[in-house]
Structures are given as structure tokens and as C-alpha cells.
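Give me the fold.
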Amino acid sequence: MKPLCLIIFLSIVIQQSYLKLGVDASSRDGFVRTKGVQFSLNGYPYYANGFNAYWLMYVASDPIQRPKISAAFQEASSHGLTVARTWAFSDGGYRPLQYSPGSYNEDMFQGLDFAIAEARKHGIKIILSFANNYVSFGGKKQYVDWARSQGRPVSSEDDFFTDSLVKDFYKNHIKAVLNRFNTFTKFQYKDDPTIMAWELMNEPRCPSDPTGRTIQAWITEMAAHVKSLDSNHLLEAGLEGFYGQSSPQSKTLNPPGQFGTDFIANNRIPGIDFVTAHSYPDEWFVDASEQFQMEFLNKWLDAHIQDAQNILRKPIILAEFGKSTKKAGYSPAQRDVVFNTVYTKIYESAKRGGAAAGGLFWQLLVNGMDNFQDGYGIILGQSSSTVNVIAQQSRKLTLIRKIFARMINVEKWKRARGYGPVREGASVSLLEKPVDKFVHQTRIPIQAVSFDTNYQLRQLIDSGNLRDARQVFDKMPHRDVFSWTAIIQGYVAATNYNEALILFSAMHLDPRVSADTHVLSVALKACGQSSNVSFGESLHSFAEKTSLLSSVFVGSALIDLYKRTGMIDKSCRVFSEMDFKNTVTWTTIITGLVHAGRHKEGLVYFTEMSRFRDLPDTFTFAIALKACACLRQLRYGQGIHTHVIVKGFGAVLCVANSLFTMYTECGEMEDALRLFESMSERDVVSWTSLITAYSRIGQEENAVNTFLLMRNSEVYPNEQTFASMFAACASLSRLVWGEQLHGNVFSLGIVDSLSVINSMMKMYSTCGKLDSASVLFRGMRCRDIISWSTIIGGYSQGGFVEEGFEYFSWMRQSGTKPTDFALASLLSVSGNMAVLEQGRQVHALSLHLGLEQNPTICSALITMYSKCGSIAEASKVFEETNIADIVALTAMTNGYAEHGKSKEAIDLFEKSLNVGFRPDVVTFISVLNACAHSGQLDLGFHYFNVMRERYNMSPAKEHYGCMVDLLCRAGRLSEAEKMIDEMPCEKDDVVWTTLLRACTAKRDIERGRRAAERMLELDPTSSTALVTLANIYSSTGKWKEAAIVRKSMKSKGVMKEPGWSSILIKDQVSAFASGGQSHPQCEDIYSILELVVHRYVCAIKGAFESTQICDP
């Protein structure tokens, strides 16, 4: 009884173990073998869905760069890739593996050790190539050169295949690689199951022998040599697939050229376990159309798969294929078509047990490897449609492998239960059995392994036909995660974020579908783009519960979500909790910090990122340079510039433009100009940055000339360019140029751009054309706060109080919240026009809006109250200011000085110095003005010298004007005249007017005459100079000279400017000048004035002639 129970128990255990799919079928330990036309691992089918990464050993030889190797394998494994092909050679030259025949570089060998160990860690097999056909990394040429240096009569690279010494060198290298002891895994390479196969050479060619016999003999000899040393691993020749004399009918498929290889004959050689083919239609047929290239690709793949299946009876790997992004007319959709075509051919063969055993795309890169980018590189960490295609192929082949494994297990179970004899070669026959039949027999839905609909869906979305794609999606009876991801991604690309999130919610309710990292990152992107924080936070919680948060894609998407919604602290928290970070992750958090104004923190993160030498890419450098520009960190920016040069990014436009901006913001215009001149390519950002830089430093004419050069180039200006140009025209007061630019903008159709129209309004306002600015403003379809602030500031600065307040009221009615600039403009005009009540109302509004502590508002309030005569209120505002601001301090100092409170002004200035304030040039103008008003000559000269010697400031004409005024008030006119003559800066009429008026007061005729003559040299029609000079002559009794001056004024048409005054009545300011006739109520005003004068005269007469009665 016990034996019977034991037998039953064992049969149940055997049945369960045979039917399970997860352990034996998915195990990646063991050596890969061939069974018929397929690969086998541990008795189960194996598919080589993988990639090329020739750089693994080279990069890993530097221990600092090894994290890139780990990242590459981690990303590859997470996308289901199973095989990596790489070089086990680097002969001679820079950083060689083999210095000379038999002499090896241990650092390079340890780099290869590390790469193999990392592949093992992530369950990926390795194909190692022994040599290169090309000069890169040594190749045939290096072996031939070594032989020539030892006296061998070799002349051609093709002697590699025939010279005995060269072949000995090569055989010894094979032996060295096979016997290498891996310092990490502790295996010899020939005993390491991580290595799937050896490759004799990367793309061997012998054009000197087009018959193929030379290559045939060489492969035969070398295959036998490898097999004599290693019986564990598979071997392939590394052929590209060109047909030869053994199949003349197929030679018509070859691209143009002589190759000296024979796909059929070379792969029939004993010892060659499987065959390879490469495919580069875009390289082989550069001038052909895309349609021709795709037709060739289909024929090429079909022919090789069929020949491997029917003639060679060996598995075939499509060992290299891709699509270059550097070809003219490239689009991501074209690359997707190439990958889909290759993968579909493999899948259609594999699911029927055919010879197509996998494909290896060229090539895999990770972030920070721009130097290795040849146009074919794919970074799995950067989500793209091609990455989705790769991941989908992995899942398709995995599903096939599991189905085949189940077929084998069922067969084994039947044999164990005695349902049939154990047949020799049963596993092979089962592997060659089509999947479709087994799916039907085991009642597995055919939809589980059918991907045609998903492919159609992807094609429709990529072509922009989202409506038809949605119809296909809605009609799908079974949707997997790829279907959902494709349609959600389509809506995100179409900026219909709400629909994308609705679809994600629907997918989440489908019990047959589990969200993966890719679809979750797409949904998070939709949340970020639509600022849907609540949905994004829900997805964050979902990611934590499902362990999807460990994905670098999900983590990066979360950082971007919180960054876009202004929650940068949450972004930092997510970043700090991530175990693995790639370039995208680092760049996203740095960008978020910089855009949030936290530039120093951004540079701290950049510094930490830079410890991993190759992580920063061009975008990272660009955003770090922006942070340096904002902080004026020239030294740090120069350090980044050095790294940019070392990494070869200097010619990348976004980096070069950021470098230029950094130098201009830091005041290094000469370095910036040298950089601009050295740029091999310039875009609109380059030109606009130079125009803006010139305008910023006051060289507006250079800005205009740069714009003209840009217009003569092939680069078209954009909105920002025109905005900068209008600003330059405003600074130059060149209305005509501005109007010409206006016409240019109109012709280009960008007149509705907010930045352009705002800058045009500013230009017209500055040039005194407020009517034109108003027309532009009223014609705007939409307005932002800059629009309102510009028009309000224009009217305010033009002295039009009523209009300025009218626009301000209009802005308030529109619901737009005033900015500090708009309020400051109104306060400025209130002060200039001395309308205290309006200024107080603006003050009250700033309190209501919580802007009373804004530095701009504080200084504007102080200035307004000072100009309106209320120095007490100005002092109160200053005392209540919590912000230590040099502008407010200067405004208060100037207010005290203008009100004759020189002592208070000087005391405030001294107090500010004692607490560590660094005064600016304007502050010194205020304190020098205070000294002049109080007559403190020695103190004035003390501050004048302090400005130059302690603070290293060069006095401007305004400072000299204060000093001249100080000397004139002290009666030291000769010293004042000497100071004017010795001024290093331009002498304007202000200093000469000051001296002239002092000469009038002191009756210094000769000095006054000289001052007047200098003024007239500057402005021949200066009424001030002529009137004052005439007054000097009159006051000293020189009537003849005075008459001559007044006659000169009359002949020149110069009239003395009349004085004027203003009055505020019912919120309306009215200005009056002597003899003025412009007021709309002029007649009434003069009538009242005459009545007032008449009554005044009567009153005077009454005082002296008490008996006289005046008419009523």
C-alpha cells in the first residue's frame, strides 16, 4: 500500500513540476545550445532579443564610469532584453586591450570582466567578438602592421586571412580570451554560462578575393581552433549576410560592392553553430527612397530566414539593424517601421518554430554617452515609441517561449504517466511544432499572442490619425497593457489630457490588465501637463502600493509632475527616495529648482550629479549654465565651460547659447563675443541673445546692427527678437525704426504675440506716441499684466495723471491684479504732479494687496510723499519698512536732501554704512546733494573720494554736477570751472547751467560768459544760456551787451520757456503757463481772472482812497 501511495504522490509532484512555466522555462543559468533551427536553454526554447553595445569593455575599464554599465544592463533587463553583443578586442592605439601580440592591458580586461559580471547579475547573455574587420579598435590592419614590424612581407589588410604569423597572433588572442579568469565572477570565460557565443570577427570581408574562398578557408581553420579550446559555447562567424558564388540567384539581393563572403557556404562550415545577418538599407542605399529601402529590407529578411530554415538548418540572429537619425528626412515613425518590420519577421518565424531566433538592434546607449551617438543609438531610459516597440517584442517572444515550454512539459508529463513511448528527439519536434495549433488545443485565447491589432493601433497613432485609432481601440475585444498605453499616449501627444486620464481610470478598472511603469509614467505626464495635482497624487500612492515607484521612469515622471505644479519640495523628496537615477532624473530635478528660482540648490544637485562623470548631457549643462547666469557665478560657469569642452559639447547649440548668456549676464561681453564668433552654427536664440546683450549694456546701435546682420543670414527672427529690437529702439528714441519694425512684424503675421505687442507699446510710449500705444492696447485680443503695466506706466511717465488712473481703473474692473510696477508708475506720476491725495489712494491699495513691503513699492511711496511735500509720511513709510533695501534708503536720503533736511540725510547715510550697507551710485548722488544743500564742502569731498577709493566707483556726470553745485554754493567758482574742465566724462548743459547761475549771483561776468558760450556750443538755441547771460550783462550795467544777446534770441526765434503750475480739481489735473491758451475752458478762466484782478485793483485803491466808491 505504501509503495502505491508513494507512486501516486510522485506522479502528482512530477505533473506539477512539468506543468509549471515559471522556474525551468525562465531560468537563465546554463549554456545556450542549439536544437534543430532553434536555441535551447536548459531544455527549453531561448530567444535572443537584445542589443549591440560595443563600448562595454572600453567604458568599464574606467571604474568611475562603471555605473553606466550597470545602468545599461538594468534598463535592458527591465525591458525584457536577453542578449548583448560586444567587443572582446581593442588592438593597439588608445586604451588597447592588446598592446602588442600577447601583451594585455589589465585595466581593459577588468573592464570586460565587470561587463560580463553585470550581464550575469541582470540575467543577460553575452556574445563576444574576437576582432574587427575595420580600423576602429585596431582591426585587421593592426594585426597586419604587427606582422610587418616583425619582417613579414604583408601589404594588404586582407593578408590577415592568409599570413601564418598574423593567424598565430589571432589564435593566441582567442586563447587568451577563452582562458581569461574573470576577477568578478571567478569563472574562466570558457566556463562561464553568461557568455552565449563567440564571434570570429565583426563583419569579416575580403574584397581582394570576391570568390569567397579566402574567407571560407579562414573560417574553417578558426572555427576548428575555437572548438578545440572550448566545447561549451556556441560560435558564429560575424557575417553580414552577403550572398556569394554558392547561390548566384540570391546575389542579386546584395547591395553594391565586393565583399568576398558567401552567406550559404561560410555558414555551412562545421563548428559554426548559428548564422547572422546585418541590415542597414539606409546606409547601403543612401540615395534611394524610403519605400525602396523598406522593400529591400523585407526581401533581405525573408531570404535569410528562409535560407537558415531550409538550407542551413541553423538558427539565425539578425545581429545588427537600425535606422539612423542623422539621415535626411528622418522621423521616429520611420525607425519604428524598421524595428516593427524586423521584429515581425522574427515573431512570425518563431511562433511557428522557425529559424529566426532573435534580433540585436544597433545600438544601446545610456544617458551621458553623446560621444558614442552615431545616429543609431537608443536610450531605453528616454521613453519613446521605439522603446515601446522593443519592449513589446520582448513580451511577445517571452509568451512564445512559455507556450513552447508548456508544450514540452505536457509531453514529458504524458511520457511520465505512460501515455506513450519516449521518442528520440521529441523536444526538437515539439519545438518545431507551430504555436498556433497548441494555442487552439490548450484553449489559450489566440488574442493573447496576436499583436497585429496593437501594431495597427500604433501605426494610426504615429501617423496622427487619433480618431481612427480610437475606433480600432473601442472595437478590440481584448486589450492588453500595450493597447491601453498606445491610446493613452496618443491622447497625451494630442494634448487631450483629460481624456487620457479618463482612459487610464478605465484601464485600472479592467481586472485583466495591470498597469506597468510605462503607462503609469504616461499618465503622470498627463497630470503634469494639465496641472492635475490631485490625480497625480493618487497615482503616486498607487505607485507606492504596487512597487512601481522603484522604476526610474515613474520616479522621473513624478518629479516632473510636482515640478510643473510648483511643488518643488515634493520633487526633491521623490528624488531623494529613488534608488536609481539616470540623466533624465537628474536633469528634471535641476531644471525644476532653477525654474523655481532656487538656483544655488540647482547647482548643488548639478555638482553632485557631476561626480558621475558621464551623467550630465547637453540639456543638463544648459540648465546649469542658466543657474550660473542668474547668480552671476562667473567662476562656476567657467568651470562648466571647461567640462563642456572636454566632453565635446561646445558645438551643441543649446549649450553654446547658454554659455553665451552666462558670459553676458556676468558682464564678460568680450568673452561672449569671442564665443559667438567661434560658433559654427547660429540659430535664432544665438542672434537674439546677442541683440539682448547689447541692449542690456546700453549699446543699442550695436543691437540694431546685429539685427541687420541676422536678417542677411538665413535665420528668421522670432517674437523675442522683435521684443528686444523694440526695446532698443525705445532706448534710442528712434521712432522711425520702431515703425519700420512694426510693419515687419505685421508682414510676418506675429502682431498678435503678447511679448511683441507689449514691447511695441513700450516703444511708442517712450517715443512720446501715446496715441499709437493706446491704439495697440485697445486692439489687443487678450492682455496680460505686462500689457496693463506698460500702458499705465506710459501715461504715468508722460505726466498724464488722469489717463494713467483711468487705465488703472479699467485694469481693476477687468479683474487683473495690479503688479508692483503698475502701482509704482502711479505713485511716480502722483509725486511728479504733486497730487498727494491720489498717491495716498494708491498707498491704501498697496496695503490692501499686501504689497506694502515690496521694495519697489516702498521706494516709490517714499519718493511720492517726498515730492508731494509730506516728508513726515515718507519718513514713516521708511521706518515701517522691514526690507533692508538700498533703493528705499536712497529715496529717503534724497527726500531729506530735497526738503533741506541735510543733517537727517547725512545721518541716515552714515547709519547705513555702519550696518553694512553698500551704497550704489544713486545713493552717492543723494548724499552729495545733501552736502550741497547744507554747504558742507569738506564732507562732500570726503564722500566723493570715498566713492572712488573705498567702493571703486567711477563718478558719473551726475556726481560731478553735485560737486560743481557744492563749489558754486561755497562761492569757489574758479575751482568749479576747473572741475568741469577736468571731468573725464561727457559735459552736459547741467553743470554749465549750475556754474552760469552761480556767476549771475556773484556777478562774475567773464566766467559767466564762458559758461554761456559752452552751453551754446552744446545747444545753440538754449534759452537758459541766452536769458541768463543777458541778465548778467544787465545786472552789471552792460546794457549794450544785454541788448545784443536779446536781439540774437529774437533772430534765432528763441523764447524764454514760461513757468507753469498745476492744480487738481475733482481728480483732474489742470496745468497753467503764462499766456497759455490751450485749456478747454480758457475763455472762462480769463474772464474770472480779469474779475479777480479788477477786484484786487479796487481793493488797493480803496486802501488809499477811502472816499472812492468802486462799481459793484
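The chain has 51 helices and 17 strands.
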